[in-house]
């Protein structure tokens, strides 16, 4: 199991498997360690992309399962191993039976967890070879009945990004702090202000919020009065515009406060995820596929607060995203005891197979 941007062995194993299914074309190392397999029908037509993420997480695996991670401190606690396996099953089916028309692209995507993977795929010149007319993805959902298909019109998962706010003054010897310029008081004021702001945002709809995830003041030492401070935030919203407005307000407020207190100010953005917005027609296709397969179908009342970088593909084509229940007793995503249930693999495969049929034959 390998984490983001290091999926070298994962890529090689997937490549070896996919080659056995004899796709018409394989594109290796797209977007870093991504892999795309193209299966062409007898006649030209629409190109549909099915995406599965493949990266793991920096989470220890405290179990004795025979398939536990061999890399200490890295494991699949979000189910991306299951998502990739679903695509491997699809590859086998497509190897045995091509569509009558159109093309199917199976995309094994790296680096989903930081929001880098989808954008890396889109920015790769090789993407033009697989640029789809429509794209679909899924994510397993703990706390939902096994095999239940969950959909939502519009936003399925929130937009988010990390914001690092940096304040620089001047260090001094700890015995003479008055000779320096410490941001300690400013840091305390800003944290207090931001927490009050977060409370006020609870009334904003759709969901728009942030959380302070980390704060730094100086170095871990007793001999130096600090001259440097940082505040790290994760901003989150169901609406991309609201997210941008909130971040601009926070940045400009901190910039003004830093100027008032004579500190240098900088900021940077990290791990940016666009909102995952399902196209209305794609949602109808997902619903029809679930009904055709006589699966339990449910509709979310509101989007998930977590983010999913599949939303980036919405900038190039209509996208459809659905949830696949992984069990009411399943530990939460990113929990050390999470374990993707193999008995939902074929349901995921069947859903994608039926979606492909509906898209290419419809």
SSE diagram, text form:
Layout: H1 8-19, E1 25-30, E2 34-40, E3 43-53, H2 80-96, E4 101-109, H3 117-123, E5 134-141, E6 149-151, E7 154-157, E8 159-168, E9 172-173, H4 184-201, E10 208-217, E11 224-225, E12 228-237, H5 240-260, E13 264-273, E14 276-278, H6 280-292, E15 297-299, E16 319-325, H7 345-361
Parallel strand pairs: 3-4, 3-5, 5-16, 6-15
Antiparallel strand pairs: 1-2, 2-4, 6-16, 7-14, 8-12, 8-13, 9-11, 10-12
Helix pairs in contact: 2-7, 6-7
Explain what the structure shows.
The protein is an alpha/beta fold and 362 residues long. The protein folds into two domains: 8-155 and 276-361, 3-Layer(aba) Sandwich (Aminopeptidase); 159-272, Alpha-Beta Plaits (2-Layer Sandwich). Helices cover 29% and strands 29% of the residues. The strands form four sheets. An eight-stranded mixed beta sheet has the order 1-2-4-3-5-16-6-15, with helices on both faces. Strands 10-12-8-13 form a four-stranded antiparallel beta sheet, covered by helices on one side. The chain has a two-stranded antiparallel sheet with strand order 7-14. α2 (80-96) packs across α7 (345-361). It is elongated and about 80 Å long.
